[in-house]
Amino acid sequence: MTTIAVVHTGPVTVQPIKEQISEQIPEARVINIMDDSLLNDVRAAGHLTPEVANRIHSYMTNAQAMHVDIILNACSSVGEAVDSVRNFVSTPIVKIDEAMAEEASSIGRRIGVVATVSTTLEPTVRLIKKKASELNRTIDVTERIAEGAFEALLSGDAAKHDEILKTTISTLAETVDVVVLAQVSMARLVPQLQGVRVPVLSSPRSGVAALKRALDSNVR
C-alpha cells in the first residue's frame, strides 16, 4: 500500500487535502503530521525562521523513518524550508503549491496572487517567479492581501471572511490574466467564483495531482 505523509502547519489544510487524496489516490494510506505552532511562529516573526525550518526538517525526517513513499508539504508559508530538507531527506517531497505556481506562469504574463496573511503571500510570489524563470517566462505579479479576512475567520465569522476574499479576487481579476489563491484554505471558494473572467487557481487539486505523478514515476 502506498503511504503518504502530509506535514501541516494548522488544522485547516487537513480536510481539503484528505478529500483530494481520497479522490485522486484512493488506495493510499495517509499519515497527517500537524503542528499548529509552526504557522503561529512564522506569523509572529513575519517570516520563516531557522527554528521553524528545523522543525519542518525534523518532521520530514520522522516521516522518512516511518518508511512512507512520499511526503507532501501542505503549507506555502514554510515551503521554502523544504528546499534545504530535500538535501538531507531521500524520500521524495512535493510542495502543495509548486504545480499551481508553474501552471500560473504558463497561463499568462499578468499574475495576481491573493492571500489573507503576508507570510503566505510573499513565499508564494517568490515561488511563482522562480517557476516563471525556469520556464523562461516574463511575468508581472500583482499582490493582494484580503484585508480583514483572516481576522474575521479568527473571530468565527467565516461568511465575512469569504465575502472579503471574493470581493478581493473579483476586483483583482479585472487587471490580470490569472488569479492564484495562496492558501489551501481558500480552495473551497473556487466553485463560488464561476463569474470571474480569468482562471482562478488553488493548490489542493493540482498539488495532489503532482503528488500522484511523482508516485507514478517512482513506481516506473
Assembly annotation: single chain
The CATH level-2 architecture of the largest domain is identified as 3-Layer(aba) Sandwich
Q: Uncertain segments of ≥5 residues (pLDDT<50)?
A: none
- Mean pLDDT across the residues is 93
Rg value = 17 Å
How many strands in all?
Answer: 8
Name the CATH class of the largest domain.
Answer: Alpha Beta
Secondary structure: elements and pairs:
Blueprint lengths: L2 E6 L5 H11 L4 E6 L2 H9 L4 H16 L4 E4 L5 H7 L7 E3 L2 H10 L2 E6 L2 H17 L5 E6 L3 H6 L3 H16 L4 E4 L18 E2 L1 H17 L1
Describe the structure in brief:
The protein is 50% helix and 17% strand. It is α/β, with parallel strands linked by helices and 220 residues long.
Give a description of the structure:
With 220 residues, the protein is an alpha/beta fold. The protein has two domains: 3-96 and 205-219, Rossmann fold; 98-203, Rossmann fold (3-Layer(aba) Sandwich), CATH 3.40.50.1860. It contains nine helices and eight strands.
Give keywords.
220 residues; alpha/beta; Rossmann fold; 2 domains; 4-stranded parallel β-sheet; 9 helices; 50% helix
